[in-house]
Amino acid sequence: MAEKTVQRQCGFTLIEVLIALVIAAIALAAMSRSFGVTTHNQALLEEKVVATWVAQNALTQQQIQTGSNQFSREEKMLGRNWLLTQKIEATQLAQFKKLTIEVKPDTASTGDDASVSTRLVTVVGVP
Questions:
Q1: Quick check: pTM over 0.85?
Q2: Which ranges does the record mark as transmembrane (predicted)?
Q3: pLDDT digits (tens, 9 = 90+) for 4-58
Q4: Residues 6+ apart with CB under 8 A from 20
Q5: Distance of alpha carbon 118 from alpha carbon 102, whole angstroms
Q6: Under CATH, which number does the domain 14-125 receive?
Q7: Which residue among 10, 23, 55, 70 is least packed, with the fewest CB closer than 10 Å?
């Protein structure tokens, strides 16, 4: 009598491989989305930091020289154009004035209406 030998096969079944591929695809899609959000947030943070520098420069210029109470001008910093709006208002104390500086990306070339990236509000002494 001939003996039948049963060979056990090792490895994964097709369904196991497909389930593993689905799990890997979902994980990769989540990582891709995470990288996209991180990149977007980094760009927004960079915009806010540079806009704050522009506002601080304008504040320093205003402290050095006296000028009009309200104006808008374009500034260039780090290869980008910024629209700077400055407004000086009276306070309850005559020797102080409220200075508000708003900075947003200059989007005149694209036609978009950008929101304010930073707003700097301070009190300055009247010379």
A1: no
A2: 12-31
A3: 777 777 888 899 999 999 999 999 999 999 999 999 999 999 999 999 999 988 8
A4: 12
A5: 6
A6: 3.30.1300.30
A7: 10
Rounded Cα distance, 44 and 47, in Å: 5
The single-letter DSSP state of residue 115 is P
pLDDT digit string, tens, across residues 73-116: 888 888 889 999 988 888 899 888 888 999 998 876 556 667 88
Amino acid in the structure at residue 52:
T
Q: How far apart are the first and last CA of the chain?
A: 116
At residue 108, the pLDDT reads 60
